[in-house]
Amino acid sequence: MYKVALNFEDGVTRFISTLPMETVADAAYRSGLNIPLDCRDGACGTCKCHCESGQYEMDGYIDDALSDQEAEQQFVLTCCMVPESDCVVTVPASSEVCVRSQQADVHAQLTEINRLSESTLSFTVASDQVRAMHFLPGQYVNVQVPGTDQSRAYSFSSMVNETDESVSFLIRVVPDGLMSTYMADQAQVGDQLMLRGPFGSFYLRDVKRPVLMLAGGTGLAPFMAMLEKIQREGCDYPIHLIYGVTHDVDLVELGKLEAFASAIDNFTFSACVASEESSWPQKGYVTHHIEPAHLNDGDVDIYLCGPPPMVEAVNGYMQDKNIQPASFHYEKFAASK
């Protein structure tokens, strides 16, 4: 048996003991601590933490969940991490989130489907159970594809609507994708969907300094929920969002971003398109549009959500520029068939 100190971002430390060949995630769960977790087999990256000290074995994960560079820096997936000595692990979430068991199955009714562009659609579901999920803006759920035993992960793109108990999501239209095909060709208002969650350690923390948000494609979704919460509660610090897509057709929800900019005094945003054939005035990648003022000499909280190549590019940019923000939270996703 080895002891593992779990250091949470709110300054709380919890100690657990692992059994022989037991993963840190399983040992934590056995001790009543729920490290953010989803797949349990090294595929999603939800349980990514950082090992500050100690020896461990970690096999069976895929590169999209944990890159070679991250592994070299001793980032770990706790669902695959088996300690070989006493260890200290930093968990990128608050102790309150990890102690509280929030995951639930919610049956909801599909109330709205909107084709936002050729590449993106949104859908809304309603249920008197959604409030019981207690999700934080930025987290996601697994949505089961009707008529199958398969599910797909989607970030909430809204907070709970107080009037009709509804929540919304963005989905990228993937050719021959299971959920894409259902939503585009088969779904009808009134259909029943099953949601399981919430999951993830990517969520909005208390705003105590300037914030820089970097969104790629439908990685815009969690920021929409974050901005809705900020609009409701107010904010005294500047918040800037840079929204990047590949093609002009991928730009969506600009009207909502404009509305947030009007409603939130300190919020600004810009959008850029990577394609050289784009007619959009701002071209290139999100890193081309980060200005020194956005970084506030490092006294900034950075949130990043996008596909793996974008996340790796931003990580590389920050290392090349020697940028060390006060906090850096990111989530990478890959569109699923």
TrEMBL record:
<dbReference type="InterPro" id="IPR017927">
    <property type="entry name" value="FAD-bd_FR_type"/>
</dbReference>
<dbReference type="InterPro" id="IPR006058">
    <property type="entry name" value="2Fe2S_fd_BS"/>
</dbReference>
<dbReference type="InterPro" id="IPR001041">
    <property type="entry name" value="2Fe-2S_ferredoxin-type"/>
</dbReference>
<protein>
    <submittedName>
        <fullName>Benzoate/toluate 1,2-dioxygenase reductase subunit</fullName>
    </submittedName>
</protein>
<keyword id="KW-0560">Oxidoreductase</keyword>
<feature type="domain" description="FAD-binding FR-type">
    <location>
        <begin position="103"/>
        <end position="205"/>
    </location>
</feature>
<dbReference type="InterPro" id="IPR050415">
    <property type="entry name" value="MRET"/>
</dbReference>
<feature type="domain" description="2Fe-2S ferredoxin-type">
    <location>
        <begin position="2"/>
        <end position="95"/>
    </location>
</feature>
<dbReference type="InterPro" id="IPR017938">
    <property type="entry name" value="Riboflavin_synthase-like_b-brl"/>
</dbReference>
<dbReference type="InterPro" id="IPR036010">
    <property type="entry name" value="2Fe-2S_ferredoxin-like_sf"/>
</dbReference>
<dbReference type="GO" id="GO:0051537">
    <property type="term" value="F:2 iron, 2 sulfur cluster binding"/>
</dbReference>
<dbReference type="Pfam" id="PF00970">
    <property type="entry name" value="FAD_binding_6"/>
</dbReference>
<keyword id="KW-0223">Dioxygenase</keyword>
<dbReference type="InterPro" id="IPR047683">
    <property type="entry name" value="BenC-like_FAD_NAD-bd"/>
</dbReference>
<dbReference type="Pfam" id="PF00175">
    <property type="entry name" value="NAD_binding_1"/>
</dbReference>
<dbReference type="GO" id="GO:0051213">
    <property type="term" value="F:dioxygenase activity"/>
</dbReference>
<dbReference type="InterPro" id="IPR012675">
    <property type="entry name" value="Beta-grasp_dom_sf"/>
</dbReference>
<dbReference type="InterPro" id="IPR039261">
    <property type="entry name" value="FNR_nucleotide-bd"/>
</dbReference>
<dbReference type="Pfam" id="PF00111">
    <property type="entry name" value="Fer2"/>
</dbReference>
<dbReference type="InterPro" id="IPR001433">
    <property type="entry name" value="OxRdtase_FAD/NAD-bd"/>
</dbReference>
<dbReference type="InterPro" id="IPR001709">
    <property type="entry name" value="Flavoprot_Pyr_Nucl_cyt_Rdtase"/>
</dbReference>
<dbReference type="InterPro" id="IPR008333">
    <property type="entry name" value="Cbr1-like_FAD-bd_dom"/>
</dbReference>
